Amino acid sequence: MKPLEKLVEFLKQNNVPFKQFHHAPVRTSEEALAQRPDFILSQGAKAIIVNAKKSSDRREFIMLVLPADKRLDSKKVRKILKCKSFSFAHESDVIRISDGVEPGGVHPFGNLFGLSVYVDNSLALNDEIIFNAGDRSVSLAMKCIDYLKVVRPKLCEFATK
């Protein structure tokens, strides 16, 4: 099953209402905004997979989700993840972890990939969020509260302007 189909099935099984949008393929949040004019950048849920170095011999892939108008604060991320360092996951790792999704298309449901998910508090200020849905040419929009209920992420502060 393709990641988009798996996500849609997961949302339907959990009775989560959502809207689906088809558009030209996008890779960045800014490109996505141009395709989704009814939304603002801060409503975009940007999913980033990082490779956290927990100790000298242990690394862990983790998903960080933040508003598309913000970026990661490295110092806060290291503190929250309790890691010595972290790096963005390599493209090949992203594709492997996400069942074939290329960077730029990864949806923020890291739980479906077996990842721990951390969401920046500022994303929860939105009534509705929108995100790429496992395909660079498909976006889903839904209530943020519904997203938080089904993903059950750790809410914390790690984003900055």
Structure description:
The model has no long low-confidence stretch (mean pLDDT 94). The protein has helices at residues 3-13, 29-35, 74-81, 91-97, 144-151, and strands at 19-22, 45-55, 58-67, 71-72, 85-88, 116-120, 128-132, 138-143, 154-156, 159-160. It has 161 residues and is an alpha+beta fold. The chain has a five-stranded mixed β-sheet with strand order 5-2-3-6-9, covered by helices on one side. Strands 1-8-7 form a three-stranded antiparallel β-sheet. Strands 4-10 form a two-stranded antiparallel ribbon. It has a single domain, classed as YbaK/aminoacyl-tRNA synthetase-associated domain (YbaK protein, Alpha-Beta Complex), CATH 3.90.960. A hairpin with a 5-residue loop joins strand 7 and strand 8 (138-143). It has five helices and ten strands, in the order H-E-H-E-E-E-H-E-H-E-E-E-H-E-E. Helices cover 25% and strands 32% of the residues. The longest helix is centred in the N-terminal third of the chain and has 11 residues, at 3-13.
